[in-house]
Design brief:
26% helix, globular, alpha/beta, single chain, Rossmann fold, binds S-adenosylmethionine
């Protein structure tokens, strides 16, 4: 958990919360977490002043931090409870992992670009998020060692639902949220495992950078 919040951008965080509410985010735990975390510290200095815009911003290695509404929407859609085990695929800046940690979840996160992971780890240390467990590599096949997970959140767009991830869900109510579609546009899929039976709910469309890996796109990402 974050112990010493910076005073900078505190008005922007209040506005961010109001904006998210106006867009239909009602989960108080999500609003509390995003109203507390200094998003500017998950960006390079030259983008920090834009931290509270509702836009995706570059974080290096051709990747982006997702826009705040997308983070809030995905986190709310998982209906998380404190203490749940959550796996994130695509650590990126580390912001989404910090949101999950602030919500009291036990967080595991995987990033394929080592420099991004190293930067995210520095942020976790600086902000006191010492319980986040992370590794570099291809997360499209999950993290079998720590499975099963109560929730898995994929923050990159996949061509199909990665089957291995569905197998790493808790059979008693595990949820997998993954954007699925083309390289240009994806629909959010919410896959649930209830008593060992999978169901799929289709949610709105979003646009993500590609999930690159064995159960993702077999390619290098575009710039
Ligand atoms: N959640 C991130 C945040 O809060 O900043 C933003 C994620 S960014 C939209 C998607 C991330 O997924 C990129 O950093 C990308 O390198 C990563 N990625 C893509 N394919 C991956 C894979 N197979 N395994 C792990 N990470 C992957």
């Amino acid at each position: 958990m974050l112990h010493s919040a910076t005073n900078n951008f505190s008005h922007e965080r209040v506005h961010l919360r109001e904006f998210l509410r106006s867009r239909g985010i009602t989960d108080e735990a999500v609003l509390r977490a995003m109203g507390k975390i200094p998003r500017e510290q998950f960006l390079e200095k030259n983008f920090a002043r834009r931290a509270y815009e509702d836009s995706a911003l570059p974080i290096g290695s051709g990747q982006t931090i997702s826009q705040p509404f997308t983070v809030a929407y995905m986190t709310q859609a998982l209906h998380l409870q404190p203490g749940e085990k959550v796996l994130e695929i695509g650590t990126g800046s580390g912001y989404q992992a910090a949101v999950l940690e602030e919500m009291g979840c036990k967080v595991f996160t995987i990033e394929r670009h080592l420099p991004l992971l190293q930067n995210a780890r520095k942020r976790f240390d600086a902000l006191g998020y010492h319980d986040i467990i992370s590794r570099s590599g291809d997360g499209s096949r999950g993290w079998a060692e720590y499975a099963p997970f109560d929730a898995i959140i994929v923050t990159a767009g996949a061509p199909d639902v990665p089957e291995t991830l569905t197998k790493q869900l808790n059979p008693n109510g595990g949820r997998l949220l993954v954007p699925v579609g083309s390289l240009d546009i994806q629909r959010m899929y919410l896959v649930k495992n209830e008593q060992g039976k999978l169901s799929v709910e289709e949610l709105p469309e979003f646009k993500f950078v590609p999930l690159v890996g064995k159960e993702g796109w077999a390619m290098e990402e575009r710039g």
